[in-house]
Structures are given as structure tokens and as C-alpha cells.
Amino acid sequence: MITLSEENYLKTIYHLESREGNAVSTNAIAEKIETKASSVTDMLKKLAEKNLITYIKYKGVNLTKEGKLTAVDIIRKHRLWEVFLVDKLNFSWDEVHDVAEQLEHIKSQKLINELDAFLKFPSHDPHGDPIPDKNGQIQRTAKIVLSMAQIDKTYTCVGVLDSSSEFLKYLDKHKIGIGTEIEVKDKEEFDQSMTLKINKKEMVMSKSITNNIYVKAHNEH
Amino acid sequence: MITLSEENYLKTIYHLESREGNAVSTNAIAEKIETKASSVTDMLKKLAEKNLITYIKYKGVNLTKEGKLTAVDIIRKHRLWEVFLVDKLNFSWDEVHDVAEQLEHIKSQKLINELDAFLKFPSHDPHGDPIPDKNGQIQRTAKIVLSMAQIDKTYTCVGVLDSSSEFLKYLDKHKIGIGTEIEVKDKEEFDQSMTLKINKKEMVMSKSITNNIYVKAHNEH
DNA sequence: ATATTTTTTTAGTCTTGTCTAAATTTTATT
DNA sequence: AATAAAATTTAGACAAGACTAAAAAAATAT
Description:
The structure is a homodimer. The first copy, chain A, is α+β, with helices and mostly antiparallel strands. Among the domains of chain A are: 4-63, Winged helix-like DNA-binding domain superfamily/Winged helix DNA-binding domain (Arc Repressor Mutant, subunit A, Orthogonal Bundle), CATH 1.10.10.10; 143-217, Ferrous iron transport protein A (FeoA) (SH3 type barrels, Roll). In chain A, 42% of the residues lie in helices and 18% in strands. Chain A has a 6-stranded antiparallel β-sheet. In chain A, helix 1 (4-20) crosses helix 2 (26-33) and helix 4 crosses helix 5 (96-103). The two termini of chain A are 34 Å apart. Chain A binds chain B through residues 85, 88-91, 95, 98-99, 102-103, 106-108, 110-111, 114-115, 118, and chain B through 85, 88-91, 95, 98-99, 102-103, 106-108, 110-111, 114-115, 118. Chain A binds a DNA duplex through helix 3.
């Protein structure tokens, strides 16, 4: 049996590992989980004992195959619950995290697979992150700058390049944030400005703006 | 902050209190929660400290107003989740309990109120038990024997009077259990036998059978 | 009314997950 | 290469929630 704390550690290690590439440090984990390094060390010993991570003293950790599977399963649950909250219960994308953080620990295979079906097997959560499938496969979609997007495809905003307050104010004014869907309607050859459908309204953006917004393509299912 | 264990104790005390009427004994709680009496005593001290119960050594416990509200809120969550699992995720009424037991501890007012709305404010869970409203009000519907039921109303089976294995076998054969919906189509004046619609099929039951099945009327909302 | 049984509480221990303070190893600096 | 700084681990302690064994109170039986 795997405890709630253990699940949180595995999830955190997974995220750090995929960001950093190499072994994850004790301090990095401590910071994410908001705990002390000594507590992390204790937990790492436990996880290593259970063969969920490979842990070399002073050298950091990596997930084993089993640990990775467990972590991905938690992430799958988290993201499916986020879709449920936004699509069915009128949560906005910035309200879902804390609740999904609790729901992701509910143990029931049937529950999560039925939820998946009920939501029509969504490929991405409200923030644009991909949802692992039943077997832990993740459909990785590289993020691109909006200016590179193709006409008639739909994207999800996943971040910004320019984070000056002027730019953020612009985004705010047009109600664009992480998770906002952007449909590319047209692209002007002359100045590369784009006609986009955002929040059910059409608008035009110049290249200086589309160059500063990261998006992920929607994967058709 | 109220812990998961504390919530389970409150819920258990609530159920025992409403069944027994008077103060709830340490042993009764221990049996329900499947723990030792000494562990219960420890917890009772904690709950009394938090003003959730009134506890007199050797004399048993009762919930305070605050404790009752907390317990009812947990029961509300439990029953709403049960409805969700059965109505939306294809769970059968006997599969829901363990999962609902986990889901009832998720903390988010918005979550549970939105879920309530999403499910169209159900008045009863799949077992026929009433769902407390947002303010903790419970619509108590007295159970009656099926033989007393009215024509053209729908009921939910909530229990049996005769629990001999012959009788249970009869119920099993016709797929009748706790939670099964029973619609009264007709009642014969002569022998009091009833024509019922159960599991989408019509059938006739003699008074010796309808006299031994407890049902609750469905409340119109 | 007293003795016996049952129920409940107390005392002390254990596990999980956390902490602080001190010790050790690694990394960075001169 | 030696030393200072940073990162990590160890040692010892604590709170929550559980347990066992023993003591105390209440209920029951004689």
C-alpha cells in the first residue's frame, strides 16, 4: 500500500525529473513540497526500500519504472478531475488545483476509468497539459509560439515569453490566460497578423503579440 | 482543522446516536470503526476538547450542535457522491460505498454545492437514504411496509422485516435489494396482492410478501 | 450487600511523517 | 590543494492515532 505522502513525493519527483532531466536533489524536493530537507531524506529511504526510486546518498534520486508508473497514474487522475471540475461543475481553470490535489488520491480504478469515459476521454486538462492514458502513455505536444500556429487549428495558451506587466495587462483585458483556447481563423501574409477566435469572439493580433504567447496544439482524438 | 479520523468518528457517533436515541457508548463506536475501545477513548477526549461532542467519563457521548452539523455535512457529501457514482459513472448501488467513503472527506464547499446542482439536487441517495441540504436539514421520510404503499407512487426498498434465507432468496431471484425502485401499479382489493413495476418488469406480489418489505416513498422535488 | 463480570479508562509503547540541531559530504572559492 | 560554503544526512524529539496490558468504574448476579 502506498500512502498519500508517498504519492505526493512521487508526483513531485516526476515533475522535477522531467524538468531537470537528470537526478533530482533533496533540496529541490523539499522546496516543492514545502518541507525540510531532513524530512525528504527520511522519505527517500522509504521510497527506495519500496523500489519506487533509485536513491544514492548525496547524489539525488530517480524514479524506477514502477515509481514512474505510479506518478503518471496520479497525474492522470489529477488532470481528469480538473477536466471534470471545469467542464461539469463550473470551476474556472485557476480554482481547480487545490481540489484536484485532494481528488487525485482517491483509490479506485473503476472510478477513474469511468470518469475518463464520462468526460469522453479528454486528451488535455484545462491548462493544456496532456492527460496520460490508462496505460500511462502521454501524448507529448511541443509548445510553439502562437505566430507559428496553423490556420484552422485550435490551440491552448500555455505560457508567455514576455512577462512585462504591460503585456500581462493586455492579456488580462482580453481575458487570455493559461488554458485559454485560441482558434486560428486567418493569417495575413503582409504583416503576419492573425485573426483569432478567443472566448467566442474574433480578434486580430499583431506579430509582436503572437510572438510572445506560447500555445500547445489540440490533439484530435 | 478537522482531521479525516475525526470526521469518521463524528459520522459514526451520529449514526449510532440517531439509532439508539441516547448517549453512545465507547464500545459501540469501537465496534463500528473496527478499532479498540482505548483508541476510542483517546479520540473522544480530543473531540470533547474541540467542542464537537459532550463526553462524560464512563457515561458515553453525544454530539454538540457543531458536531452534529459537521457529521451531517459529511453524510451529505457521502450521499451526493453515491448519486454521482450510480447516475453518472455506471456504478451499481453495492459498489459505491468504499469510494464514497473516500470522497466524503474532500474539502471544498464549492465542489459539493456544484455537485449537488449538477445532479439536480437529488433528495435521496441510491440506497433510499435522504440527502441533507446545504443547511444540514434532512427530509426524514418514514419507512413503511410495501403493503401500505399507494397506487401510482414510486418507492425505494430500504429493508426487510423477514430475513429468513427463503425470503432473501425470493428477493434475490427477482433482483430486489436495498435501493431497488418499486412502482405500485395496482392493488387488488380482494387479496391485497399488488402489481408492481420492478427493474422495468411488471410482477404481482401477494400480501405475505409485501408485508415484509420496507420502502420509503420518493419525495417529489 | 457483596462478588463477579463487563465496560471504560489509564499508562506506556509503536509507527508515520514531521521537526531541529549537529555531523558529514560535496561543491565552490581562493 | 586547502578552506569556506552549501547541500545532505544522521540523531534525537514530537504529535497523531493506533495498540496492549493493567487499573478503575459500572452493571449484573448471587
